[in-house]
Amino acid sequence: MAPELAPHTDTDGNTVSSVEDAFEALSAAAPEGWRVELIEGKIHVVPPANGEHEEIVSEVTGQMRDHRKDLGRYTGIGLLVPGASPTGKVIPDLVIAPKGSFSDALEYHDPGPALLVGEVTSDSTAANDRGPKLRGYAQAGIPCYLLIDRERGHVVVHTEPSGQRYARRSEAEIGKTITLPYPFEFELDTGEF
């Protein structure tokens, strides 16, 4: 994680954001599989996910496919989430949206079509997943935020976005089932996590 950098003025008097410049440079230079995110003005360089992390994402996408074949299941897609950072550029572990929602050539997309975003915590991402991303996803109006918190052993479903928070929250221990809200309306079985 890099420290927050202050904007500066170039020789023509134009304000240049050092954070955004650094973000763009790091994004371009990041090795394959690494993610660079700008969250609440701070740059986070996230190493590739481990096998357990990917197995959980795969299990959630599989169960989603079993219940809602009409929806797209996107991993590694960038979203513009204004509340998460000055530029709002984040890459959730999972996005569920109508098929074709992100069929353009953009790297970062409007979160409007997203019905659910999912994050699987790791030691390096848990604080962001529980704080800035939660606030950003709520502020963006994403109807459901699924947080699989491996460090705490819980799955949390946040719904009803209101400002920078979600008005409803349900929680279950990993290994149990948890109900996903409309338009999913099925029991997510976390026993395979």
Features:
single chain; 193 residues; six-stranded mixed β-sheet; three-stranded mixed β-sheet; 4 helices; 22% helix; disordered N terminus
> Into which percentage range does the β-strand content fall?
25-35%
- Helical segment tally? 4
The largest sheet is: 6 strands, mixed
| Helical fraction | 10-25%
* Straight-line distance between termini: 28 Å
Q: How many beta-strand elements?
A: 15
Strand order of the largest sheet: 5-8-10-11-12-13
- What structural category characterises the helix and strand content? alpha+beta
Mean pLDDT: 85
How would you characterize the overall build of this protein?
With 193 residues, the protein is α+β, with helices and mostly antiparallel strands. It is built from four helices and 15 strands. It has helices spanning 18-29, 51-67, 126-130, 132-139; strands at 8-9, 15-16, 35-39, 42-46, 71-74, 78-80, 89-90, 94-98, 108-109, 116-120, 144-149, 154-162, 165-173, 177-179, 187-189. A hairpin with a 2-residue loop joins strand 3 and strand 4 (42-46). The two termini are 28 Å apart.
